[in-house]
Specification:
about 375 residues, alpha/beta, Rossmann fold, 14 helices, 13 strands, globular
Length: about 375
């Protein structure tokens, strides 16, 4: 048994999402969004290095020592799978582990809108799941892929860094590739994927201009492409993609994106106050002809209004989702206010005015 196994077991047994290890601190777990110290002594440099190197493959250790940080997938037999990140910091070596459930939950089990299942059946186009780190993007994408796996008879290729959820073939053929292990980069794997007869391509993250361009081209050649960005709204997502390109190319990219885009799901995680746990709030943009026209004409600032009037297509604004949770007593007024877009809408519910950022309230 590895020396870190008891800590991994603690993560699983408590329902925590993350384990943090660093020199000079005891281990910490993230439970329902908050970090909590484990009753254990502060870790020393040599001790922690021995613990971490014990569970990492040699090639991972080599990359870490050369580059100063590394991501990889870690399977603890009979317990769980983790996404691991080793990094160097001021005091020495450190690591973060994110638990990955062994079973992929369905859209229904996650309590997400059923329109997400429909996205899994699209013949082609670009579907983006966005949000900050820890907002559940990978979980949502896994549920969409799982639905496609059950309902379609196609070839799915995933390109991830590292591989997170393991998908067993059901009705589909699924090939999962890991950046750094099976391919050099997202762009290389995406370029090669077009010669591997895929129907659906999952790109773990659209990190650079080349990857974005290849993903857009893949949608225009008849593929369904799923990916993520670290953006907090549909409008911001569209602007981020366009702004990656130089000004002289942006008109063409707006046209290409308007043809390719099918949906943007932006996620924000909230701590529940009705019971232990967390819940995700969504903004959903469906790329109707009217939405595509706004993108083509550079009128992205009008998209929030389009979301408000597009409920019959399955669209949802983040603030409406937050207000629904608040009215049902699921989340706190303070967190609703902090994470809302139109903060003035939620200000009347806030009791603790010390959290208010006066720069974000019109008329203050």
């Amino acid at each position: 048994m590895a020396k870190l196994d008891p800590f991994f077991k603690l993560v699983v047994e408590t329902g925590a999402s993350d384990l943090h290890l660093s020199v000079g601190n005891p281990p910490l777990i993230r439970l329902h969004g908050d970090l909590q110290r484990v009753k254990y002594k502060a870790l020393e440099e040599d001790e922690l290095r021995e613990m971490l190197y014990e569970i990492a493959p040699e090639e991972v250790i080599k990359r870490f020592e050369e580059e100063g940080e590394v991501d990889f997938g870690l399977e603890i037999p009979g317990l769980a799978r983790f996404r691991a990140n080793y990094y160097k910091e001021r005091k020495g070596i450190a690591a973060a582990f994110r638990i990955i459930p062994t079973r992929v939950k369905t859209i229904e089990e996650l309590g997400l809108p059923l329109v997400l299942n429909k996205l899994a059946l699209l013949p082609k186009g670009l579907v983006l799941v966005t949000g900050p780190t820890g907002s559940g993007k990978s979980t949502t994408l896994a549920a969409i892929i799982d639905y496609a796996n059950r309902m379609r008879y196609d070839h799915i290729i995933t390109i991830e860094d590292p591989i997170e959820f393991i998908h067993e073939p059901k009705n589909c053929l699924i090939n999962q590739r890991e950046v750094g292990t099976h391919t050099k980069s997202f762009a290389n794997a995406l370029r090669a994927a077009l010669r591997e007869d895929p129907d659906i391509i999952l790109v773990g993250e659209m990190r650079d201009r080349e990857t974005i361009m290849l993903a857009l081209e893949a949608t225009l050649t008849g593929h369904l492409v799923l990916s993520t960005l670290h953006t907090i709204s549909a409008a911001q997502t569209i602007n981020r993609i366009i702004d990656v390109f130089p000004p002289e190319e942006q008109a063409q990219i707006r046209a290409t994106l308007s043809e390719a885009l099918r949906a943007v799901i932006s996620q924000t995680m909230f701590k529940r106050i009705d019971r232990p746990g967390r819940i995700v709030a969504l903004e959903i943009l469906i790329a109707t002809p009217a939405v595509r026209n706004l993108i083509r004409e550079g009128k992205v600032h009008q998209i929030p209004s389009m979301i408000q009037t597009g409920k019959k297509y399955g669209m949802m604004s983040l603030d409406d989702c937050i207000m629904d949770y608040l009215s049902r007593g699921i989340i706190s007024p303070e967190e609703a206010f902090i994470k809302a877009v139109d903060k003035s809408r939620f200000l009347p519910f806030v009791q603790n005015r010390e959290i208010v950022d006066f720069t974000e309230i019109p008329g203050q």
